[in-house]
Amino acid sequence: MTTPRPPRPSLTLSSTVLDAPDAAELADFYRRLLGWEPVQEEPDWVKLLPPGGGSGLGFQTETAYVPPVWPASPGDQLMMLHLDFEVTDLEAGVAHAVAEGATPAEFQPQHDVRVLFDPAGHPFCLFVDDQVPGETPAISPEWVAEQTRDIKGQDQVTAADAVRPDRRKAAGTAEPDVSP
Known about the structure:
- The protein is an alpha/beta fold.
- The chain is built from 5 helices and 8 strands; from the N terminus they run E-H-E-E-E-E-H-E-E-E-H-H-H.
- It has helices at 23-34, 90-100, 141-152, 159-163, 166-170; strands at residues 15-20, 37-42, 45-49, 56-61, 83-86, 103-104, 113-117, 123-127.
- The strands form 2 sheets. It has a 4-stranded mixed sheet with strand order 1-4-3-2, covered by helices on one side.
- Mean pLDDT is 80; it is low at 132-140 and 155-180.
């Protein structure tokens, strides 16, 4: 016999929080990038909300922060998440982000997405959703083959490798495990 579960409490996503060496500095970048205003500011914490409401972005100071590497190779600091922002004009969106302090990534995996780094090194994406609802986007087989070659040419960590690095070692493709 199973025990009945208690009723689910009300849960609302308030914000996604990014660690940084300086919370106020990173929050200021996103304030300028998005046009959002701070609703909470403390010495090591800032929260921004969009003008129309909804979940926001929080920033907390973490003195031991290590920026992620993207795309990652074995042993690199992995990103735990990244932010996606839809733009109507990809070129203008990138230009605006760079003017506010972002840096474009060298590796760009798709033609309709641009990966950039914020001043603390968090990757984020700008993308254009130019699909007509109900229609499948037209992607040529040649483009898919080119992207596949480019991605395979990168020494990247897969999700399975990140979770179970011993599989790479067993396959003879990773450095010996030196963890305690």
